[in-house]
TrEMBL record, chains A, B:
Matches recorded under InterPro entries: Pyridox_Oxase-rel, Split_barrel_FMN-bd
Listed Pfam families: Pyridox_ox_2 (PF12900)
Region Disordered: start-end pairs: 194-215
Coiled coil location: none
Protein name: Pyridoxamine 5'-phosphate oxidase family protein
Length: 215, 215
């Protein structure tokens, strides 16, 4: 993807990547996006689940959602996904930071009405939350599909930004008697909690997520 | 905060909270926000560090940042903060969800130019990343303050939305031979990695974060 003015990273340019593979890697590592668009000059930033399909992001919500319907009208939108990987603790306040991977995507959304495509997309959302889970649960029925507004957001421009590694203290600060370093941060999953009315063992998707440590 | 049209939650209203305490609790649990605003009709959603001070959110960036300067002009902005607490695995695709806490804030930003306030704010950012860390590191000097654009975003309206608990399957699905439940998710910190040129032991802030398990 060529860099143009809308998504070109201007600050700390050495952290920016425009290749689709770099953008997709950040997107595929998550399922929660922050979706921004304006309605009558008022910006909204709404957390939404997403699933990537090629160079599109699938979004869904209730057919009754006012904000989803605005987005479905094809207004310019911006979708951002971020992962924090660590706390960067420098000798100076100024150089404190976090390690992160983030993507900012620009584009517009179109509605998907075909029921087969909608059903497939809902399955992809399930697998985006937990790979393999869609095959372990019931597909959407006609009423559920009718209640769902499915949007396909076409990524027109995107950039990824990644910070990793240790603090970058000023040379003059390195001799100060102050600790500096990184505290890595990651997402961890706890033991599965079955629904009250469920006495089955956790399925393969959950066992894989938890490293086989589940009873 | 009274509910008016801009921030009134319309979908799944039982998850919405408008009290300042509920909003602040979600904000205080994080340090990464997604900040949205439009420039010439193009929406931007940018991940930024933040620190709450009363009913304001402090934001900062480089004085050279084009986007920060746009925000500093007082354009309408929307700031969203989200935490994911678990994967909600239902018997149907349709009822899959995540447990989360999120806040959406509406307001505008003003620039803070006073160097004393700027220095205090930069210290607050450090403590937002890791409580107690500001006192363990060097305060910002005159040049660093001059290079920093500090914004005070005044929260005019806000709502918090929280989902917790197990899946809410349709009664007709509860007899299906399918596992349903929740996999809790949380942020965990790993062992501190000192900077290459640092041979001091981890400071109290890091030891507290890691539960005293650090060497």
């Amino acid at each position: 993807m060529p860099a143009n003015s809308r998504h070109q990273v201007r600050r700390t340019k050495e952290r920016a990547q425009y290749e689709a593979a770099a953008v997709h890697a950040v997107l595929d590592a998550g399922f929660l996006a922050h979706v921004g668009f304006s309605v009558d000059g008022q910006p909204f930033v709404i957390p939404m689940l997403y699933a990537r399909e090629g160079n599109d992001l699938l979004l869904h919500g209730s057919i009754a959602s006012r904000l989803m319907r605005n987005l479905a009208e094809g207004v310019p939108a911006c979708i951002s996904v971020s992962h924090v990987d660590g706390l960067v603790l420098a000798r100076s306040h100024f150089h404190h930071s976090v390690n992160y991977r983030s993507v900012v995507c620009f584009g517009t959304a179109v509605t998907v009405d075909d029921p087969v495509q909608k059903a497939q997309a809902l399955a992809r959302f399930v697998d985006a939350i937990l790979p393999g889970r869609a095959a372990e649960s019931r597909e959407s029925d006609r009423n559920e599909l009718a209640a769902t507004l499915l949007l396909r957001f076409r990524i027109e421009d995107a950039s990824a930004k990644v910070r990793s590694g240790g603090p970058r203290d000023d040379p003059a600060d390195r001799g100060l008697p102050l600790w500096a370093g990184v505290v890595p941060q990651e997402v961890r999953f706890g033991a599965a909690i079955p629904a009250e009315d469920c006495d089955l063992p956790p399925p393969p998707s959950v066992q894989r997520l938890l490293g086989g440590a589940q009873p």
